[in-house]
Structures are given as structure tokens and as C-alpha cells.
Amino acid sequence: MKTYRTHLMLCAGTACVSNNSFKIKEALEKEIKKHGLQDEILVVMTGCNGFCAVGPIMVVKPDGIFYQNLTEEDIPYLVEEHFLKGRPVQKLMYFPPKEKEVIPKMMDIGFFAHQTLIALKNRGLIDPEKIDEYIARDGYKALAKALTSMTPEQVIREIKDSGLRGRGGAGFPTGLKWEFCRKSPGDEKYIICNADEGDPGAFMDRSIIESDPHLVLEGMIIGAYGIGANQGYVYIRNEYPLAMKRLEIAINQAREYGLFGENIFESGFNFDIMIRKGAGAFVCGEETALIASIEGKPPEPRQRPPFPAQSGVWGKPTNINNVETWATVPTIILRGYEWFSAIGTEKSKGTKVFSLVGKINNTGLVEVPMGITLREIIYDIGGGIPGGKKFKAVQTGGPSGGCIPADLIDLPVDYEQLTRVGSIMGSGGMIVMDEDTCVVDIARYFIKFTNDESCGKCTSCREGSEALLEILNKICNGEGEEGDLILLEELGKAIKDASLCGLGQTLPNPVLSTLKYFRDEYEAHIKDKKCPAGVCKALIQYSVDKEKCTGCLLCVKSCPQNAISGKKKEPQTIDQDKCIKCNMCYEVCKFNAILKG
Amino acid sequence: MEKIKKQRENIMNNKSDIMNQKKVGAAMVVGGGIGGMQAALDLAESGIKVYLVETKPCIGGVMSQLDKTFPTNDCAMCTMAPRLVEIGRHKDIEIITLADVEDIRGQPGNFTVTLKKGARYIDEEKCTGCGLCVDNCPVRNIIYIEPEKEEVKLSTENLEKTTEIIKEYKDKKVSVVSLLQDINAVYNYLPENILRYISQELDIPLSLIYRTATFYKAFSLKPRGRYLINVCVGTTCYVKGASMIISALGRELGVRTGETTEDMNFTLETVACLGCCGLAPVMMIGENIHGKLTQAKIPKIIGKYREHIKLNKEVIYAKNKD
After folding, report:
1. Protein fold of A541-596
2. Strand order in B288-290's β-sheet?
3. Which residues 260-279 on chain B approach chain A with CB closer than 8 angstroms?
4. For residue range B76-134, what is the model confidence (pLDDT) as tens digits?
5. Contacts with A431 from chain B: Cβ below 8 Å
6. pLDDT per residue over A320-355, tens digit each?
7. At a CB cut-off of 8 Å and minimum separation 6, what does A529 contact?
8. What CATH number was assigned to the domain covering residues A439-526?
9. DSSP code per residue over B54-89
């Protein structure tokens, strides 16, 4: 095999691709060739690096230098300076806010330094479209261990002892789930990888598949061996074309290498995988709905029991796990349950991937041990809130979760603690909100989402979400009444009690948790007819700060309604009758001269 | 309101009368569904004579037509049967079926109800309910002849395309979702005549196709523009102002969410999450992702696509001509 002096690990996750990382690759290769370095330097397109905020990203190996926000124009200079003359380019390195000096090495950046990688262990290190690179990183070694030296019972035992719990949301012990399915009578069994990542604000599943598809496949084969299944499905969202493509490539390569098909590793075990595409329905993430969708039926959840472990796809015992759960399995088998269960808290073992997004400096994907505090995630890894704004709340668990207020920032993050404060772990979305976010509006947003996505089977969910939305709309429009909050609470509890599947049972959570921690903000909307965060259009007015306005006319030009007028170099005025509150002037103003309130 | 007030007063005035009057130890339950049956039983058990009135020829109501009941999936007949038997046997319950309430007079404690009983044309005393007459009734046994279905025909071009798509699905367990995805890939929406055609060719009920097509967001029954604009309204994009991006796009294109521009170039839609939260707010035009949007950027981006459309006149997606 050919060896190179330096590897350039260029990120090719969705975010970086849309920032032109493929054009940068071309430019890099062109420049490298120009300087005659093509035998010494290799450009590798890796999966998502995780630090999406500063993409496109390139890591120089082996020195570990981290370059960010690359553009095509930077490349000639970069190649000449760093790879020819040996002088790393400072201006392209990570510059932490509030600091004076750049951080050249990746592992010194707070975002990476505080993470523990299991499910994301190969991110940014391998080309996801090449199976050999995965194998070189101990890939399929766990599978070989399981198939050649362990019985299916031992595999299940190992997972059970590790304390691994489902990473899709509810946190059911994975080993126990496998055991149920194994013990269900029947020769024909199925396993499913749930890659229908519907939670808005969560993208770890997409990222895992894009950066390391073989890890998921390996986990699935091990699981299938333990359970005794011979056919697997990956149910993947329609909105993830890149992940789908990489998964297809990975499956084909693995099949060529004899990792799928009959008699894998001469163990007599047969297994194969098929991909099923979703078509944009959030409820398909619910396991019984997902099964119906795989069968081609309209995806409506059904009553359990029978559980999928007894009667799933085509009425056969079926085991469903989330992408991240499958991706954790190989490492547990390889390193043993003791190693895994030493990480985390008493009841929540191992690590969890969170997508740290919203009003935060270091947006991206982070994998941290269970039990880490929110403060560490938001400040040490996330780098705090941008623009010097105040941290207000963090929303976890997507539409089923809740808002955790700023005074609970030292809360250790695990399944139990999050449930205790009225939220859930969910698939791991972590949306940070600052003082400019209105919690009533956020609650309304989630209810609108679940109202759209409710399949309509249960009256409580279908009509209940509609009624919740109506009340919240009323409050946001300044028409809220005294008894509305009590009504919201009562209705929320009724919906929880009377719905069939997880969607309905958890949909009032965003309302109930914000009511619990931010009741004063609701009351401000109802009693004072004010939106403290300046979000709800009906309750705010735009005006010009006469002192700050320089009369640059930028807002005048951008206003779609021609509602702003005034002379050049003099303070402007806004015609309230014409203003549609589109926020355009606020966005374009460079002097913070537009006031909301 | 006035009326109710007056009534109330009247009742209060008559209260003493009512108290003095002798109450009748009987009750009437109107409606013989599961609720009425249970009410009748409860009343009868507490020692009151019950008249159970039902407009249909027999009691049982809707529940007797169900297999399972929502949401517990309990067997409907298991809930009903014991009650039916009990009511039939109870000495204090008198069932009056095929009857409508005509008039109610009197006050609480002492009502007089007039019922209109429909004719059964049989001697109820002698009938054993053997059901033989039902089986042999010539009026009931009219044979239903299904109207002949009109055959769906497609133009040659569409026929070729559709045959190509359904080739794989013939004689197999069909997954309607993947079938519709394939049609969508060709036409960019689901044309009605094509759906009718596949329903006929593959023998899938049109209702199932319609149900699936309207359930998933990826499908549309209306023609969509050349470029599908999907604005991400995931939580991150939302807190970073996705709704303003949508209104900016709406102003630029002159359409609302879910609509297509008149020149058939753009369709504006929203998507739950594109998973590019690092670039929020984000939208996807065709397969291109545009991130870190501001309202000011929108006209520029759309402008680029418009230029592109001017340069390449050929239509990317085949339009359905039928």
C-alpha cells in the first residue's frame, strides 16, 4: 500500500458539502499537483467532523492541525505556505471568541477536548465510502469475535451487562429487547435500523451514517446473530440523500467482502440487509408505524401488545433499534461490557451523542459521557452563547421533550435526571435558547409540529393538539384570557392519558414544561399583552432609536413595504400602519438602531 | 336565557307541589345503545322499573357492529353480550323497540311520554326470532350488481413510463409507498390518471393509494414547479428566524407555502428538519442546500435560479400531458 507523508482530512458531511467542500477538494488537488506533492500528500473526504459551525473543515494528519471556514481562494496560499514551506497558516485556524490567540491543534479546541467518542469513533478519520479504511480501524473485528468465539446467548448477555439503553428516546434496555425477540417463537425474524430521524434539531443519525456507515452495519449483523434474524431493514428518511447513497455503497462493499449473504465467516450464519426509504412522516419513527410503513401500509401506530418482538414486520418477531444504538454495539463487543459500563452514571451507561444547536457558538455534534452537566456541554464544549446574550433555556428531546431553564444548568444529563425535570433524553437534540427566544412561541411551534404530524387515529391527539394550538395562538396574538393557562394544563394531562402512541403521550410536554418554568412569560403575554423576548408579532412594534440612527438608508432600501422614510443622514421614522413586522430593518441595521418592543 | 330563567322560576314555584306529589317508580331510557343498556341495567338494579326505548328494530346500537373498541382493543361483543342477555331477562326492564318519542309532558318525578310504535307486521307473541323469514325475504335479497368500471387509458408517452415503473411490482406484495416514490421521481408529483391506472393494473384499491399519497409529505397531488423549495422549519432554524425566511420567499415569489408560481418554476414548501442545524436557517432548492440565510439573501438566491431557468429552456421534469 502506498504511504503518504500527510493526509488532509476534508469534511464531506452535508453541512460542509453545501459549503462547497468538493470544490475545495478539486482546488487542493490541483495545487498539490502544481507543486509536485501528489505522492506525498493525500486528500481524504471524510464523513461529518461534527463541528458544523465552522465548515468546511480540514484536519491535517498526523500533526492534527485544524483549518476552518475554507474557501477556494485560500487554497493556493495554504498549500504553498503549509505543505511546501512548512508554515501552518494562522488566519485559517480556529479563533475562539473572547480569546486572543488561535488554537492550532484540533484536540486542544474545547469542542473536541471534552468529548468521549464511541458511536462517532471514526468520524473525520476515514473515508466512509471505503470499507478498507474502516477495517483498518478495527472494523468488523467485533463481528469476527462474536461469530467465531461467542454464542448468540453470550452476545445478548454482553449487551445486557453493559447496561446499554436505546438511544432513540425512551431508553429501553437494549439487551432485554434483544432477549425478548430471541425468545419469541418463530424461525423467521427481522431486525430494523430506525434511521427515520424526525426530531427537528437532531442530526446524529444522519451524521453517523454519513461518516461511518459500516459501524452501523456491523452492529446490525452482530445483533442479528444474537437475535437469530436473517433479514434486516434500514428505514431511512427521504430527506437524507447523501446518507442513503453512502449506506448503499457500504452495503454493496460489505456484500462483496462476504460480510452479508450466506455463511458469514464460515459460521453458518446468514444475513442480509435492505434499505427502505421514508416519505416524510414524523410518526414513522414510532416503531409500530415504522413497521406498517415498511409493509407499505399507511403508517398509523397500533395498540401494543403484541409488541414488535412478538409480532412485527409481516407478523414475525422483529427488533427495532436506533442508528446510534446499533453503532454502539461493536465497541461493546470488542472492548467488553466492563469497559462500557464504567462510563456514565448508575442507570445510564456509556455515552450519548447530542446535536448542540441553536443560539450557541460551537454548533455541532458532540458525544459525551452520560452524567456530564449541561454547563459543561454548553460552556466548555459549546463555547457559550453568541453576541454576549443571556442563556435562557435548553430544549431537549425534540417535540416530545421539554425546556430546561437556566437555573438548572448544573443538572447532570442522563435518562432519569432529564425525566425528573419534565423533559426527556429523546434522540439527543439540544437546542440552546437565549433571551431573544420566546418560550410561548417555542411551545406553539412544537404543538404546530405535532398537530401537523399527528396521524389522526386518536381523537385526543388529533383534536387535542388542535385545541392546544388554538389557545397558544390566541396567547401569542395578544388575545389570551385569564383561565387559559389552567385550560392548557388540564388539556395537556388529558391528551397524555388518552393517546395510544408516544407521539400523543408526549406532545403536551413542551407546553407543560414551559408552563412549569416560565409561567411569568405566559402571564406577561396574557395580562400585560407584552412579549418580553420581542418575538410575537402582534405584541411588538418596531421603532427607530433616534440617537443611534445615522441615516444610512439601508433599512429604507430593504423595507418591502416602503414603510420607513426620512432624509439622508438624519434619523428615520417607521410608518406603523404600513409596517408588516417582517424584521428586515432589524436584520440589516448595522448600528442596532431599530428597537423592538 | 330569558326562557330558561322563567322555566327555573316555574320549577321553583312548583317545587312544593312536586315534593307533595307522589313520584312514579319508573324511568324511561331513550336509546338502546351500549350507554342506554348500561343505564337501564343500573336503574333496574336499584329497584326502578325501566322502559328501554329504541328507534331501531333491536337494541345494541353501533357497538354491535364493531369487532373491537378503541382505544383498548377490547372485544366489542364480549362487552355487549352479557348486558344484552341480562336486559332480556331482567324482570324490571321492558324493551320497546321500533318506537320514537313523540311527546314528553310533566315534571321531574312525574312524566308522561307518548311513543309512536312502528308496525312490525308480525305477531310478537308468537315469534321466536328464528330468522327464517329474514333469509327468505325477497325484498331484502336484491342482488347487488357492481357497476362496470370505466377503463383508465393513458397517452402513449405516459403509458410507456408507467409500464416501466410498474414492471417491478407485478405479481408481488406491493409496497404502495415505494411505488408512489417511483412515480414521484418521474413526474415530480402524483398525477391522478396515473394513480387510477396503477390501481386498475395492480389491483390496489384507489382508496389505499389516496390515503398513502395524502399521508406523506413527500407526495403531492398537484403539479409542482421545476424547483422545489423546501424551507427547513426544524427547531434550530425556527429560533433563528425560519418563518421570516418563508415570508421573504413568499414576497419574492408571490406564493404562499404549498403553492406553485404561475410560471411553474418554483414550489414553496416546508420540511420538518434537514439536519443541517449548523447552517441554520437552511433551505433546500432541488438538491442544493442553502445555509445561513437572511431575508436580504433571498432575492439573490432566487435570482440565480431564475437566470439558470432562462438559460436552459428545456423542462427538467416531464409534464403530464393528459
Report:
1. Alpha-Beta Plaits (3.30.70)
2. B266-271, B227-232, B283-285, B288-290
3. 271-279
4. 888 899 999 999 899 999 999 999 999 999 888 889 999 999 888 888 888 888 888 88
5. 235-236, 239
6. 999 999 999 999 999 999 999 999 999 999 999 999
7. A478, A539
8. 1.20.1440.230
9. -SSSSS-TGGGG-SEETTTTEEHHHHHHHHHHHHHH
